[in-house]
Design brief:
mainly alpha, 269 residues
Length: 269
Amino acid sequence: MQGVPAFELIAHRITWSLLFLLGVLAWQRNFSALRPAFASFRSVSLNLLSSLLLAANWTVYVWAVNRGQVLETSLGYFLVPLVNVVLGSLVLHERLRPLQWASIGCAALGVGLMLFRVGHVPWVALSLAGTWAGYGLLKKKSALGSIAGLTVETLLLFPVAIALLAWWHHTGVGALGRVDGRTQGFILTAGVVTAVPLLLFAYGAQRIRLTTLGLLQYLAPTVQFFIGVFIYRETFDAARLQAFALIWLGLGLYSTDGLWAQRKLLLNR
């Protein structure tokens, strides 16, 4: 779908995700699950902010992939756990353990190396990590379930998305009806492709160990990394290798610290 602008793809993603999720809620006969989201100004504000962060994350990701920056998107999602630690310290006032400080230091060195050796600020990676970590923080404060939460977020974004799609179609620049059938099929299935992995993640998160879930979160950026290197043949020189190595080292320290902390907790029970 490289020929379709990123903003248009996100508008389609929001629209078809909402229709799919409303269908799931209708099948479950559970529209009442949406009620708490609109019970107070605070809950509406939190859901609106989380929806804006989610839309920003989607837009940066799609834009970057369609411009040959798959490796930098991979870097962004590798950074997410470490940004979560920083947000936990700054926002939730959680005390950081020595290995957590070391992991953040390694990540900072990796980003600094990208800046000085590669010659640019990895803004795509930092934007993806910041928006996704911020979204996760707000979801932690939400009282909604996974399906209801994502439905509310897409519902709040829907008026803007459908208005843009209608305007683009009216002015003759919209993709639907003007691209080949294969691309149109991809566009129309954007909702299912978006919603199903998020719902499966939420379903699995309730049923597997936290340490397992923590390790599984590295699968997506790892796959993105291999796609960028071996399928799209993006540049991966020595400077980028050193930057990634520092961030991978930080993730290793972060994972080790998590395993030790859980082991200590189990022994003290």
